[in-house]
Amino acid sequence: MAGGSLMAQVRKPEVRARIESAALRCFAEQGYPGTSMAAIAAAAGTAPGNVYRYFPSKETLFAAVVPGDLADRHDELLDGRVAALAERSPRTSPAAGELLDFWLDHRLAVVVLLDRAAGTPFAGYPAGFVARLTEHVLRSLDVPPSAAQRKVLEIVFDNTRRTLAEILRTAEDPAAARAMVSAFWSYQLPGLDGLLGFLREGAAGAR
């Protein structure tokens, strides 16, 4: 009996980790409303009852794999990255590396934040991400933007959100993810520079 009890204690962290990994994959692929505890159990290769031994509800399991402070930390790193871009820092600046490392360390959790947050405490995060980037840009203009200018920026940054989420969702290999993000920035940043130049010219002409 003692040996069996010891075996259960040794195995428990491994089973818990397998359940958490399966849950994160399910949440990132299907979203929170579309994921059941039975689906998580199947993905983890265990019985639903065993999942409930570790997590009494889907809510507690979600909180374990997408912790409450994740969004705050992401916002801090995002602000640092945007500030570095505004100062014309190199694209390989520490801020860029820190944000990318965070994305890779929390790959599927970031996917949930950016694109699968419906039905969770982070339901407003995707729209907030777009609004945050939009406001960063608008603060660099000298006059209030028109409704059309704001809308264009929102469309651009919503595309950024969806593209980054798809890259992180599909690129399981860290080297591949880095290469894909770099490729996306090589397209996105020059286009954003051009758009900002256009908006600044429009702002100057409106004076």
UniProtKB/TrEMBL annotation:
UniProt cross-references to SUPFAM superfamilies, sorted A to Z: Homeodomain-like
Superkingdom of this protein's organism: Bacteria
GO terms of molecular function: DNA-binding transcription factor activity; transcription cis-regulatory region binding
Keyword Cytoplasm: no
Name used for this protein in its record: TetR family transcriptional regulator
PROSITE patterns in the record: HTH_TETR_2 (PS50977)
Protein species of origin: Blastococcus xanthinilyticus
Keywords noted in UniProt: DNA-binding, Transcription, Transcription regulation
Domain HTH tetR-type: 13-73
InterPro entries linked to this entry: Homeodomain-like_sf, HTH-type_TetR-like_transc_reg, HTH_TetR
